[in-house]
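Exercise 7. Given the components listed, write out the predicted structure of the assembled complex. Treat all entries as one system.
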Amino acid sequence: MTDAPTTLQPLEPAADDEDEDQLRYGSLSADAWRQLRRRPLFWLCVSIIFLLIVAAIVPGLFTSIDPQLGDQRNNLQSPSAEHWFGTDLQGRDQYARVVHGARVSIVVAFVVTLSTASIAIVLGSVAGYFGGLVDAVISRITDVWFAIPTVLGGIVMLQLFEQRTIGTLCLVLIVFGWTTKLRLVRSAVVAVRNADYIDAARALGASHRRIITRHILPNALTPLVVYTAITFGVVIAAEAALTFIGVGLRKPAVSWGLIISDSRGRIQTHSYLLLFPGMILSMAVFSFILLGDLLRDAFDPRQR
Amino acid sequence: MGRYIIRRVLQLIPVFIGATFLIFAMVFALPGDPIRALAGERSQSESVREALREEYNLNDPLPVQYAKYVGGLAKGDFGADFRGRPVSDTIKQRVPITARLALVAFLFEVIIGVAAGMLAGIRQRGFFDSLVLISTLTVISIPIFVLGFLAQITFGLRLGIVPVAGIKQGWVSYILPGLVLGSVSLAYVARLTRSSLIDNLKADYVRTAVSKGLSSRRVVGVHTLRNSLIPVVTYLGIDLGALLGGAIITESVFNIPGVGGAVFDGVIRQEGTTVVGLTTFIIIVYMGMTLLVDILYAVLDPRIRYD
Amino acid sequence: MDASSAEAATDNESANEPLLAVDDLHVEFRIEDGVVKAVNGLSYSVGRGETLAILGESGSGKSVSAQAVMGLIDSPPGFITNGSIMFGGQDLLTMDAAQRRAVRGEKIAMIFQDALSSLNPVFSVGWQISEMYRTHRGMSRRAAKAEAIKAMERVKIPDAARRVGAHPHEFSGGMRQRIMIAMALSLDPDVLIADEPTTALDVTVQAQVMDLLKELQEDTGMGLILITHDLGVVADVADRLVVMYAGRGVEQGTMHDVFSRPAHPYTEGLMHSIPRSDVHVDRLQPIHGNPPDLLRIPSGCAFRTRCPYVVERCRDEIPEPVQIGAPVSADATRSSSCFQWEEVVGHD
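Answer.
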């Protein structure tokens, strides 16, 4: 069914209502949205993410217990009606700690993901659009950063800071997190750069800036959007991992990585200490990765 | 082909220099005085400290230090830690352990990952396909340290099938950490194999193969498989490079004395030369695998051989 | 009618039975948005040494009908809901998978529009051709390779012995299509289906490939089904013509008859919309409107929304093919699915 445009094609455009309908809803993003709207899994992801964001902004909505307030008489209690996720070694309420831990993860996820995406969009489109020396320099620098494993580079770089805050963690994850996105944007831009409609825009005298922002990027952003959704999850996991091995946030900060790190050595006797925070952390990562998957399916007509 | 390889090697050299220099510069900038840290509680005379500084080139500016270091590398010298022990000794001691772990993880990825991906892709939207999609998504979502603990609780402690920590019991010690370490890549391999197979099954050449009157086993097993595995082999090769570079978190959870653990200890103890030496080694392994993948790619896909 | 096709016609009469006969074929695709009725009662036959052209625009069902004959329709979503495809006294549609496979490639072969994507990129062309001999004839690698070289020589690929190990991307478009032809004809099939075999090629190369097909047909006496959207391609080589619209064969007949006196408004529209060397027209006339959405084929005649001859009846009734005999045509297969066919024939 891949008949090429032929002599049989009608030369006059049709003017009935149905065709207009198709035009209106035919654009890729509208089409993708129609696809997404129908899928229950999409709404599941969106709900989880929404709850996490609310917990990050106003944790008080979910718990009134102070996550730092320990009661030694109540330490290491199994989950109960009073302490849904049990209590930790210091007798602090695990549920309250998990709720308050959402803030670190969500803030880091948003700051890092949006920053890396911005770096990738700017440098990637410049490299892909102009090509030549600019492209060579940007691409080689990307190769260099790409060759350093993220966890390894992150550990070394975090050691440079005496004080580690959320800001430090964000910085480190940004520094080692932009390369894949930049490659994605660059190759997408290269793919559309020589399209006829770009030539047409150029012939009409559009500026480089206008061509990039109006004509190239909208057509090159789909892979980035999908991958960006996934990196929210990846960043949350990376922050927790760095904190877990002891080079990230330190006490008395409340973060999922620290909570899980605290459970170390007690997982045999008190596995709930690991299970609940581990589950919430995994659910957060899961929602973002699944969202990315669903976006890709919706954007990619071949998958249907 | 020869020229293709030479060109790829030449392209890798600046990447190597850039990556190692970055690590070198960061380690150089680490706070604290490594010479003083080395002494610990003991007192050091100023002259001893000065002699040590001289020995480790610490008085030179950064680029000179780096140049001297690369000069040593060219002779196979990865430098020595502040106790005078060559970093290459640490590498020799740690690499076999990491290699064993990497191999176990890699086998899980190849065998389970490719098989699951193929079975899922052949019957798209079937029960097994849904199972693979959901389970891989779940595995990818669980951070590896959580997964490691979960594996320890279930397989090791509750069921008592395999050792949960250390390497005292030989190969069997590597099963659980290998599975955990390989799990995320296993999931990616399964998904990549699946989607690649599905894409290729829709390709025109598959229609041709069917119209040639070939059995469906031959259509899938010969015509589609070879094409579908090209991206999978690429992924596996790069991943093996990463695995051989050590796994800091998995080694930490399972208490395995591999390369990852050595780097981590080096960073925490601020042993700059150890960190730089091991990192350089990891980058070399990674780049070697990248090169190997490029060559393999050219072999598997004749279209890019002369590119 | 030229000499060769006249000859073919006599051959056909002596055999007195078509090689391949499609009768009342219905194919639909059940997708999320509904049921796409791709083929809605198509009938045709092709005899030994005969060339049948199936002409239609994108979405007319011409490729789908060919895929149904080859058994290439994936189910789901595709379903053959009615009809028969008779070959060698048997209905292909009632055969089991193994019987069907024995027919594919061996008895009925097919070539496609885009040879680059239709050949496997990772195997050499020699390997792909010799696979036919190895799997169907059980030949050794060496013997099959020798046969593959012969097959390549038969389609006039220069230096075949040296190029047998080259991969598809190393050939030009025309050469690649020749390789497809060599592969399809390697086992001397009775019927070759060519789905837009020249559409992807340059005009000069198109003629070469068509000439080659014609020549090979004369050598082997195979039946050739030529699927195309381009009247120009089939005008010189086809003996008979089926014009498809919205999944139906709206007009059939010998090439000469249909060309000189179209009996369906759609065919007539096609004739007016392309430049012809034999008739002078001042201005080419497009067919107004768009082909129908196969999800929502209009009631009655699918062409009525674009038809200048439309009458009340066209809205309610689907016109069945009526035979157009003497004096308009001497051909027994000549038919038109139009209530107004006499008007159309009389027009012009």
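Discussion: Chain C touches chain B at residues 70-72, 101-106, 109-110, 112, 114, 117-123, 131-132, 135-136, 167, 169, 180, 183 (CB under 8 Å). Chain C is about 35% helix and 20% strand.
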